[in-house]
Structure prediction request, 305 residues.
Amino acid sequence: MSSLLHRIRLQHVRCLLACARHGNMRAAAESLAVTQPAVTKTIKELEVIVGQALMVRERQGVRLTPAGELFVRHAQQGVLALEQALGSVTQPQGALLRLGVLPSMPAGWLARLMISWRERTGPGTVRVVHGRNGELLTQLQRGELDAVLGRLAEPDRMMHLRFEPLWGEPLVAAMRLDHRLSQQPWTHWQRLDALVVLPVPGTAIRQAADGFLHSIGAEPVAGVVETLTPELARTLVLDADALWFTPLSAVRDDVARGILVVRALPGAPDEAIGLFTAAAHGGGHTVMLSALMHELADEGRTDSH
Prediction:
């Protein structure tokens, strides 16, 4: 066993974990900022070392073999511990972390992230910058931010960036529990005589909302408010009985507390939410941030089931 450990490199493990996370070699390669042939070669090297297949290719991507599932289960714990160790010695006391965040990200989840960050890294400053996805990615590319919690963007907007998916984000219609449309079929939504709250034009979530409304022939006859500010949208829902088209994460806590109810929009695609960092980064603070976000994202998925 000890001879095998000497032959395995961290890159072997990182490649397998990335393939397991993405289910696709191309996406895994992009997340690691390497080429797809490099990932294929590294996985083959690992399989030679362990003496059996860990992954099989399929038409839609790749999947782990039973041996691969066992390997990944134990390797994840080891890599997380190593990343935490690295972050603990490379994150200077009092350092500044500049994090770009979409306005729709729930405050409760971000607060847990900030608390966990302080517990792992000690005293320091976290500067949270809210903005549109494209604006935040531009700031990251300019070196004005260290990381961005955002939506998967078009390839030309992701030059020199690394993306690690965390969860899939569905678009929903949020409303008060007693809203008359909460239980009505979609045919009753064609003439929307309630105020409609939509994301601002030019955003991916607005395109998805417009596409859904068009697909059911809906006409907002009572007016539209365009905003990316969750507090304003939530107040309009509660005080003006508005319908709010929003990513689920923005209202997840309200739904859990019984304040709002949501309806999933049929046909609206889920969007990948994840962590963007510079492809060439090597700082321990972004390594630690990645580990913490994956940890919290896994907890969120567990809590939702």
